[in-house]
Amino acid sequence: MRLAVASGKGGTGKTTVAVNLALALRQKNLTLLDCDVEEPNAHLFLKPVFYFTKEVGIPVPRIDFARCTFCGRCSEVCAFNALAVLKDQVLVFEELCHGCGSCAYFCPERAISEHERPIGILERGNAGNIKFGHGRLNPGEAMSPPLINEVKKMCRPGLITIIDAPPGTSCPVVSAVSDCDYCILVTEPTSFGLHDLDLVSRMVKKMGVQAGVVINRSDLGDDRVEDYCRDKGLPVLQKIPFDRELAEYQARGEPIVKHRPSWHDYFEKMFYRIAEKCEGVSR
Ligand code: SF4
Ligand code: SF4
């Protein structure tokens, strides 16, 4: 069963939910993957011991000018404007290249080979009996989906994988949430929270992924998020009230369930509620 934890914006408590859910279910031989590769922080709470590090790259074109006839075909087929063919030159804009391979495939002179452009680092480790993986995208790098897909290779069929997705609703989130059985949407009861929940819930619906909502700092706003969930048929899985002491633990990198054992049960119950909904569809 693959379970994503996402939110329409950063700072809603998405990693808090992912980490504490993983700790509450730690006896289940599960995997936690931090796919928020621009700013991974689940490791600060779980403190895994890493045993594997690998550089991840994407294949980008290299032109053999001894063969190239400057016909322009490669530039025509590139959907990302990563190639420009001039009279006697081919310019490759590597940071725009998605590594799709179309240019090499369609080059009539076989003048294009590929080389790897590094985009980030993949790390794997163990946090007690939780298997852990995350990616670290290189600073300034925009091409995060290939790194996210590499991190997701740690998903193990038939076992639980919790995926901490990047915030927002763009390509990296789609990469993290695709192929998941369920998505927990973390939000806050504010106007911004409602706006971003609407965006991300429409995104997961379009992707055909079931979803439920966790309302963080549930006692600090108004009822509009709950009204929205009722209208859209989104179950409210859990409400987490604001608690200054818990916020301090979090700031020190200490998970909630470590200090409040009752939260262990809340997260476990939430998981069983989700598991019931996924029955028959989980992989
Ligand atoms: S398609 Fe091949 S031959 Fe044509 S411009 Fe591109 S690299 Fe050169
Ligand atoms: S690999 Fe794909 S994205 Fe990159 S330059 Fe070639 S056609 Fe464009």
From N to C, what is the helix and strand string?
Answer: EHEHEHEEHEEHEHEHEHEHHH
Hetero ligands? iron/sulfur cluster
Helix/strand structural class: alpha/beta
CATH-defined architecture of the largest domain: 3-Layer(aba) Sandwich
CATH topology annotation of the largest domain: Rossmann fold
- Taking all Cα atoms into account, the compactness measure Rg is 22 Å
Number of folding domains?
2
Distance between the termini: 5 Å
Strand content: 25-35%
On the 0 to 100 scale, the average pLDDT is 93
Count of separate DSSP helical elements: 11
Overall spatial form: elongated
Indicate the topology.
Blueprint: E1 2-6, H1 14-24, E2 31-34, H2 42-46, E3 49-63, H3 73-77, E4 83-85, E5 90-92, H4 102-106, E6 112-127, E7 130-137, H5 145-151, E8 161-164, H6 171-177, E9 182-187, H7 191-206, E10 210-216, H8 224-232, E11 236-240, H9 244-251, H10 256-259, H11 261-278
Parallel strand pairs: 1-8, 1-9, 2-7, 2-8, 9-10, 10-11
Antiparallel strand pairs: 3-6, 4-5, 6-7
Helix pairs in contact: 1-11
What does this molecule look like?
The structure is a single chain. With 283 residues, the chain is α/β, with parallel strands linked by helices. The protein has two domains: 212 residues, Rossmann fold (3-Layer(aba) Sandwich), CATH 3.40.50; 46 residues, Alpha-Beta Plaits, CATH 3.30.70.20. It has eleven helices and eleven strands. The strands form two sheets. Strands 3-6-7-2-8-1-9-10-11 form a nine-stranded mixed sheet, sandwiched between helices. A two-stranded antiparallel sheet has the order 4-5. The longest helix has 18 residues. The structure holds iron/sulfur cluster (SF4) (2 copies). The site of one iron/sulfur cluster has 14 residues, from helix 3.
